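Figure 2 data, in text form.
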Amino acid sequence: MDGILSGKKALVTGASSGIGRSTALALAAAGAQVALVARRAARLDELAAKIKADGGQALARAADVTDEGDATRAVEDAVGHFGGLDILVNAAGMTQVGKVENANLADWRYVFELNFWAGLYTARAAIPALKAGGGDIVNVSSTAGRRPVGATFGPYAASKFALTAFTESLRAEVTLAGIRVCIIEPGATATEIHSHIKDEKVRESTRQHIEKDGAMQPEDVAAAIVFVVGLPRRVNVSQLMIRPSVDARVI
């Protein structure tokens, strides 16, 4: 497909649903060849088939990006398949809730594994290929990476704060090598992320809160990502916060 990203090679984590899926579709519609990475192989195959039916190119690669080796191999497979890599979008993420006093530390660790460590694994593996032609790394954080959303959302907020700090450090490291780095910070977005919450009452109240507040749709965030990576190389959007229009909070 022709478009502003024609000829570009991209990899998107968390591509089986939500922001990751919408971003993969948007990148493909803009002309990019897209490697789809997530754990749910069937969903990736369905998405790859849709992209190809629309005239695009896609590679479905089932992988657990919380595993360093698996994440690294997924990047290497994409580079090998497409002959390079220009865009990395780390969209995989999840949330869990709980107070610090009686914290389930396994839950906290897994939230960090997916929301923070997975992005480090893929970025480290992708840097050599991105250096070759000047590329982009986009990490999907959250407004919760600036201000915690509530007393029990510590795991999510802390992991997103860490991702934001990591992204700033990464930019300082790779900018002179021709790699642009951006942190996208969406507000409430209608995705499956609340489905991971174990507490049924909190899970349902979170879902209702998102719907009541007029959440953005995943394709809104995807459009912002395409905008960022489609800008001329002389421009680097380092941070981009996007929120629902009805969200009048100032942070």
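Caption note: The mean pLDDT is 89.
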